[in-house]
Amino acid sequence: MTMKISAIFAQETVLTEINAVCLGISDVLLTTHLGSLSLLSEALEKDKPHLLFLELPMTHNGEMDKVEDALHKNPGVHLVLVSPDRSVDFLMRAMRAGVREVLPTPIAMDSFRGSINHARSSQVMPDSHTGVGRVLGVIAAKGGGGATFLSTNLAFALSRLGKRVVVLDLNLYFGDAAIFLGDSVSKTTIVDLARQSQELDLAMFEASMAKVSERLHLLVAPETPVNINVVSPVAIQKIIDLARSHYDFVVLDMCALLDSTAVKALDMCETVNLVLQLNLPDIRAAKRMVRVFRDLGYDNDKINIMVNRYVKGGDITLTDVEKATMLKVARVFPNSYVAVTASINQGIPLLELKPQDEVALALDTWAHQLVPGSVQAQPPVQNWFQNLMGHVK
Description:
Number of helices: 17
Helix content: 40-55%
Order of helices and strands: EHEHEHEHEHEHEHHHEEHEHEHEHEHHHH
Strand content: 15-25%
Distance between the termini: 49 Å
Radius of gyration: 23 Å
CATH class of the largest domain: Alpha Beta
Largest sheet: 8 strands, mixed
Number of domains: 2
Strand order of the largest sheet: 8-9-7-10-6-11-12-13
Structural class: alpha/beta
Number of strands: 13
């Protein structure tokens, strides 16, 4: 299928160079426009491109809003900005607007070719990218809050309902989501995929997964954080885009470190589930986290407050949490220390190990609310405990 490319530049000479490059690439249809940002909406409407290059020499107030609005109306377009602005603020705003890449000016033709290859590997062609999966973020207000237990066990609960689910372990500093799912083995980590993000496609993505069961897969975190700098916002967007094109649910297990990569992942979430316990440090951390979410523009519908290990009658109540965060508590998980500890130590999801435990029932309810009208699918054939013991041997 032909890839349609549009290019908007202010110099005729640049358009001539671009045209010469595209003449040497098969299955490419190029449409050029001499002008600026004012032509973006018109080009998107008339050309209906898969890939569009837009020169943005200087960013003035409201210009990125126009870019974001245009992309919101044309969500399948792979937009590449060409700009001299390399500031962190500009790059962050561009990515949040939906821009896929930012190239420096003057544009180099090698970079131009690279962006075309990147767009092809991103599967921007409409017949190869469905983009139907729901992205759910689970993030702890503070470390040790139980976010990884909840994210992995929610993923298992969703897979029991017949859904294809992938967990992305985005705790790049010693993430251990694999332990909660039978210590699933994979030689490929999220760092490895990020390194290959330019060439990444569905086949490579699928081959990199740890196969927990037929319907539940996991992309593991690196063993050490030495090379996590390669997991950039652009790379994480590519990985999540591929995941949601191939799975019904993408569950992001995240830590409380909100760098630019984490913000990009949170931006792509349908809901952000903020996990805390009823203690003062957790509530203070949750209050700060919600304030950051507000600054990022998230509304109430996107943020869910999740209270873990809840026990009635303590010094701090659910009302205290709601006053501190200015949000209603969306979900409560009881304190079932013995059962949850056994689940973690054995690497067996709680719904498999103790399906009648009160926390297991709460997880099952959460999954059913995400998939209304669903019935439990046949459980995976895999024996979780034997799987764990096999890896230990």
